[in-house]
Every structure is written in structure tokens, then in C-alpha cells.
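stage 2 :: seqdesign
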């Protein structure tokens, strides 16, 4: 991550734009992680959430995997204000760069809404290869015909939450293939229809999205957007 990108997280920018640090979405994300692991008969004994934010995905995962070791890393100093709570007592949270500080290997590394923030995602994915058996990656699919036509939604997520890369399903899966990752499974999450922290406009437009999605989900997502992708992957031997 270069200095210009880092500045947003090392200073107050991100906290000012996102004062709750997406805590409300954490149980929903943890459920999606659990679902894709369960459907592929994977029961991890250790997780590492890289870019863990407030750490609530890890605490939510403990309800599914009470014996699993749960570790998180984040580079943003401001996020530590969310760590001083009793519900995080069985989770290990670290401030700093994962690839510089970590020396352990985990069953699953979580990259949930991370790669769109990283200046060089190819290099990032290459550097974490020694540290996991599996990756679970959550991609917001910002690119659609509607978002490109309007442009304002892309500029908003770039400014408010710091997305510097934008994905479709195909672009996300191609990135993983380019980095030597084998996709074990993927699925749309239904974010625009089920995520808890949806904006009013997103909820209002949900009816129209359902119609497009029923006709053809892939085409509907590329036309009107509103989806995210969760991917289970592992590095090719």
C-alpha cells in the first residue's frame, strides 16, 4: 500500500467518514463466511482477518467456531478505540501491517472488503501465500452499467470508503487466477437485499433489482449492480 493510500487509514480521514467502522455489517459478513466454508466441508481451527477493522467479524465467527483461534490485523490507529470491549477478550488484535508482523500460518485468512483498498492487490496476494491454507474474500461489485453511466456512485465509494479498484464478478475472479489462486467456490451474497447497513436508496431500489435478478442474475448484476461476491480460494500447488 503506497503512502497516498495509507494516509487515509493512518490519519483521521476514514474514521470521520465512517464513524461506526461498519460494525453493523459484521455478523452478516461472518454468516456469509460460515456458509461458504460449511458448504465446502471446511471447519477451520484458526482464522486471521486481515483488515479486521473493529474486530466484530471475528467475534461473530466465534459463535460458529468457539474453539478456533481468531487473530486480526489492521493498519489504522483509530480502529483501536473499538477494541476495548469485553466481547473481544478471546480475539487477538494487532495494529500494523500483516505481512511485516505475522509469522504464523492459518487455516483461513479473511480478506473482507480489503482488495479494493490495496494499491497493488497482485503483490499483496502473492505476499500472503505462505500464511494460509484457504482464503475467503469478499468483493463489493461496484462496477455495473448503471454505476458507470451515473459515475457518482463510483466517486462516492472512492471518497467515502476509499475504494481505488472496482470489480465485476469476472474481474474479481480473474485477479485471483492471475495471482495463482484456485477458486474453490463463489456466490453472490444478496447484499442489496439482505445486508443490514443498506442505505435508504438501496432498499427502495430493491424491488427493481429483484426483477432484473430473477431474469438472469449475472446480467442483472452487471446492469444494475448492488451485489457483492464472496469467494473461497486456495493457492495452486
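stage 2 :: out
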Amino acid at each position: 500500500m503506497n503512502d497516498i493510500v495509507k494516509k487515509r487509514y493512518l490519519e483521521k480521514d476514514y474514521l470521520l467518514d465512517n464513524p461506526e467502522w461498519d460494525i453493523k455489517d459484521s455478523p452478516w459478513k461472518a454468516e456469509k463466511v460460515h456458509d461458504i466454508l460449511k458448504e465446502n466441508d471446511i471447519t477451520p481451527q484458526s482464522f486471521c482477518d486481515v483488515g479486521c477493522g473493529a474486530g466484530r467479524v471475528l467475534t461473530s465467527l466465534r459463535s460458529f467456531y468457539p474453539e478456533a483461534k481468531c487473530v486480526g490485523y489492521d493498519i489504522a490507529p483509530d480502529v483501536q478505540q473499538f477494541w476495548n470491549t469485553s466481547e473481544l477478550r478471546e480475539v487477538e488484535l494487532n495494529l500494523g501491517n500483516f505481512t511485516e508482523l505475522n509469522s504464523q500460518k492459518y487455516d483461513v485468512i479473511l480478506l473482507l472488503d480489503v482488495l479494493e483498498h490495496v494499491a497493488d492487490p497482485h503483490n499483496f496476494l502473492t505476499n500472503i501465500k505462505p500464511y494460509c491454507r484457504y482464503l475467503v474474500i469478499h468483493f463489493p461489485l461496484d462496477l455495473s452499467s448503471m454505476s458507470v453511466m451515473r459515475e457518482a456512485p463510483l466517486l462516492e465509494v472512492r471518497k467515502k470508503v476509499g475504494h481505488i479498484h472496482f470489480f465485476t464478478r469476472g474481474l474479481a475472479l480473474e485477479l485471483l487466477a492471475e495471482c495463482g489462486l484456485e477458486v474453490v467456490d463463489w456466490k453472490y451474497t444478496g447484499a442489496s437485499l439482505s445486508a443490514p447497513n443498506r442505505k435508504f436508496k438501496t432498499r427502495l431500489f430493491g424491488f427493481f433489482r429483484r426483477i432484473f435478478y430473477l431474469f438472469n442474475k449475472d446480467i442483472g448484476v452487471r446492469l444494475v449492480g448492488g451485489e457483492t461476491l464472496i469467494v473461497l480460494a486456495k493457492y495452486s500447488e
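stage 3 :: structure notes
- The chain has a mean pLDDT of 88.
- The beta strands are 46-50, 69-74, 92-95, 106-112, 132-140, 181-188, 228-235.
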